[in-house]
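Before the break, one more example. Copy the sequence into your notebook; we will annotate it together after we see the structure.
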Amino acid sequence: MKNQEMAYNRIWYCILTVFFVCVTILLVSGCSKKEDDYTGYYVYCLDTNETKVIGEKYIPKGKNGKEIVKELLRRMENEPEDISFKKAIPDNVKLDDFTLSSQGDLCLYWTSSYGNYTGVSEILHRAAIVKTLCQVPDVENVQFYVSGQPLTDSNMEPVGFMTADTFIDTTGEIAYKQNTTLKIYFANKEGTALRGVPVKITYDATISIEQLALEQLIKGPEKNNSLKNEELIKTIPNGTKINTITVKDNTCYLDLSSDFMEKRSGISDEVAIYSVVNTLVELPNINRVQFSIDGEQVLLYDDVINFGEPFESNLDVIER
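Here is what the structure looks like once it is written out:
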């Protein structure tokens, strides 16, 4: 009798254990499903290091598009709930006004203070603002104005209207996708002169426009599908690397690996040097180029050309 009672107890213990396990699984699944099914608003902000955009849940109280836009803008001016995050609209950036058309065009008019932010930081702040506001049903796209003028990109082209899809999300980081056309100078088929050709590229703000231009030049025309039928020759020696490239006071300071000094066969000294210089000086923020090799100043190129002073654009070496 005692053994039979113990057996019944074990059975009930097993039944109760299974029951509680099942209930726990259902509760956890229910919570996960509820979390995944969230369809409300997010107010986007930046992480501490300003490397990515993060969203915090938010329920607007506004009743129409303009009210919700105004409310979200005000919320982005306030500190995020998580004190480790940074707000999308910093204290030193002021919004003058905004308009929302019946077609869903939202225009934000910033004071000159918006110019305090440039490069990747500006892109991320803008991404957070645009992604937040594009959740409003009445908003189709967003355009930025600074001091009454349309915001321009690093190539001095108007950014224009943006949507949440303008900002691509890769591995948790936000990058602003831009399309531009750069004028790149390759050698003619004889290697005696330069030809400037338009090259279309898609890029984001994590790489400077001057580095992108030089990377296109280093790759050469044969690696660009749109130039395969052109009679052009690569000017930069294989293996050449960009160590650093910076722009200050309209001068581009370019440090290349020593491979650059191994001149390509059939390319003149002037063509090799000015393919770099003319390509970079085409950019609106560059007037001169100062070379260095592996961090050191080299006085002569090919033991002939003065290589220690900044170079300006040379039109004489361009094919007529």
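The two ends are 111 Å apart (CA to CA). Confidence is low (pLDDT under 50) at residues 28-35. Try to locate both features in your own notes.
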